[in-house]
Design goal:
Elements: H1 2-30, H2 34-45, H3 48-78, E1 84-90, H4 96-103, E2 108-116, E3 131-134, H5 137-143, E4 156-160, E5 175-182, E6 185-192, E7 197-200, E8 213-215, E9 225-226, E10 230-236, H6 239-252, E11 258-260, H7 265-303, H8 305-313, H9 318-354, H10 365-384, H11 395-398
Parallel strand pairs: 3-8, 4-7
Antiparallel strand pairs: 1-10, 1-11, 2-3, 2-10, 4-8, 5-6, 5-9
Length: 400
C-alpha cells in the first residue's frame, strides 16, 4: 500500500505537463477569447512550467487526503462504537468530597456505585459472592435505556431482559456480606438477596450494570462507605465528551485509577497529536506552497517580459495581458489540484479498505480540501495581476 501511494503521487506529478499541454491545445483551438487563447498557447509551448510551479501545492493536497485517512483509522481504533462511554473509578483512595466532585462532572449521563461482596468475614462459606449496586431508581434510569417499575427505598434483584436469569447466578434468600468502613473502623453488613426482581435493558455491546442486586443508599449505615467500591460514570461516547470527562477526572484526582471501558486512551491522544500536526502542516504548507508558486510564476513572467512588451507594442491592452498571465497561472494549478483531490480521496479510500475499517469514504474532509484548493487558486490569481507592468520598455525587445 505505501508503494502504491508513492506511485500514484509520482504519476500525478508526471502527468501534469502532459495534461496541461493537451488541455491548453484544446482550449486554444475552441476559444474565441484573445487573452485565453494567448494563455493556452503559452502553456502548450511550455508545459514544463506547470510542473515547476504547481507540484508543491498538488502534492500537499494529495498528502492531506492520505493523512485524513490515517485520522479516520485512528479515530475508529480509539473511540467506542457504543452510544455511551463507561468509566470505572476506584473509590478506595477518594475522599467523599472528591467522589462528589466526580459525580458532578459536566457531560455525564449518570453515576452509580458498585461494590463486591466480602467473603472474608464470619460465615463466609455459606455466603454468595456477588456485586451489589448502591443507587437510587433515578440513577439507574439515567445510565441504562430501560428500567421500568423501580421503586425507591426497596432492594431488588437485577435481571437483564436480554439474557434473563442466565446471567444472574443468585437466588432469592441467599446471604451475602458487604464490608463497610468509617475512618479506621470496619464492620460487616449481612444482607439477603431480595425476592423481587427488577428487569432492565442494558446497552448492546457495552454493559453499564454488572451487578446482581440493587440496594438503596439508605441501606448503608450513616457515615459508612463500602470497602473496595467502584464509582461507575456514564457519558456519551463522542470523542470530545470522552476527553472532557477524562480531563475532569484527572483534575479532581490525578492519581485516580480510571478504567475507560472499550476505548484506547493512547490512540485517543495520538489522534489529538496528529490533528494538531496536520493543522500546522496544512497552514505552513499552504503558505510556503503559495509563496513558492508566486515566486515561480513571477520568474516565468520575468522571462517573458520581452514577449509581453512585444504584444503591448502591437496594441494589446494591459488588462488583456493581465488576463493572459492569470489564465496561464490558474488553469494548470486548478487542473492539478482537482486531480490531487480525486486521486487523494481514492488513495485514502483504498487505504481504509485495506486497513479493514468500517468507514471507506470521508465526505467531511472534501469541503476542507476544496476550500484550501480554491484559496490557493485565488491567491495565485491575485499574485499574478501585478506581474504585468504598466509601462512599455522597448529596450526589452531591442536585442530580438
Amino acid at each position: 500500500m505505501p508503494i502504491a501511494v508513492v506511485l500514484v503521487g509520482t504519476g500525478l506529478v508526471l502527468a501534469l505537463p502532459l495534461l496541461s499541454r493537451v488541455l491548453a491545445h484544446r482550449i486554444a483551438r475552441s476559444t474565441h477569447s484573445v487573452s485565453l487563447g494567448l494563455a493556452m498557447r503559452r502553456n502548450e509551448m511550455e508545459p514544463g512550467g506547470a510542473l515547476r510551479v504547481a507540484t508543491g501545492l498538488v502534492l500537499l493536497v494529495y498528502a492531506t487526503s492520505l493523512v485524513q485517512g490515517v485520522l479516520i483509522e485512528l479515530d475508529q481504533v480509539s473511540k467506542n462504537s457504543s452510544p455511551v462511554q463507561i468509566y470505572h473509578v476506584g473509590l478506595a483512595h477518594l475522599s467523599p468530597k472528591q467522589q462528589q466532585a466526580m459525580e458532578d462532572i459536566d457531560g455525564l449521563r449518570g453515576h452509580v456505585v458498585e461494590v463486591r461482596s466480602d467473603t472474608s468475614g464470619d460465615g463466609a462459606s455459606s455466603m454468595v459472592d456477588l456485586t451489589a449496586l448502591i443507587a437510587t431508581c433515578g440513577q439507574v434510569r439515567a445510565i441504562v435505556p430501560d428500567a421500568k417499575g423501580c421503586v425507591d427505598g426497596r432492594p431488588v434483584r437485577l435481571v437483564d431482559m436480554a439474557v434473563g436469569d442466565y446471567d444472574n447466578l443468585t437466588s432469592p434468600g441467599q446471604e451475602f456480606s458487604l464490608a463497610l468502613g468509617k475512618g479506621t473502623f470496619r464492620r460487616f453488613l449481612h444482607l439477603k438477596v431480595p425476592s423481587e426482581n427488577l428487569r432492565y435493558r442494558d446497552w448492546s455491546g457495552i454493559g453499564a450494570l454488572h451487578s446482581e442486586v440493587l440496594l438503596p443508599p439508605s441501606t448503608l449505615p450513616a457515615d459508612y462507605r463500602p470497602a473496595g467500591a467502584e464509582l461507575t460514570l456514564v457519558s456519551n461516547s463522542d470523542p470530545d465528551t470522552v476527553r472532557h470527562v477524562l480531563d475532569a477526572i484527572g483534575a479532581v484526582d490525578p492519581t485516580a485509577d480510571v478504567d475507560p471501558v472499550g476505548i484506547n486512551v493512547d490512540a485517543l491522544r495520538q489522534v489529538d497529536v496528529v490533528k494538531t500536526l496536520l493543522a500546522v502542516g496544512m497552514v505552513l504548507g499552504l503558505v510556503i506552497g503559495v509563496a513558492a508558486y508566486l515566486v515561480a510564476a513571477a520568474d516565468r513572467a520575468v522571462e517573458r517580459r520581452s514577449q509581453v512588451t512585444a504584444l503591448a507594442l502591437l496594441g494589446a491592452r494591459p488588462w488583456t495581458l493581465r488576463a493572459v498571465q492569470v489564465a496561464q497561472v490558474v488553469v494548470p494549478l486548478a487542473v492539478g489540484l482537482v486531480l490531487a483531490v480525486v486521486a487523494g480521496k481514492a488513495a485514502e479510500s483504498s487505504y481504509l479498505v485495506t486497513g479493514g475499517g468500517d468507514i471507506f469514504w470521508d465526505g467531511e474532509g472534501v469541503p476542507l480540501l476544496i476550500a484550501c484548493a480554491l484559496g490557493a487558486v485565488v491567491v495565485a490569481a491575485l499574485g499574478s495581476l501585478p506581474l504585468v507592468g504598466r509601462r512599455i520598455d522597448p529596450e526589452l525587445i531591442r536585442r530580438d
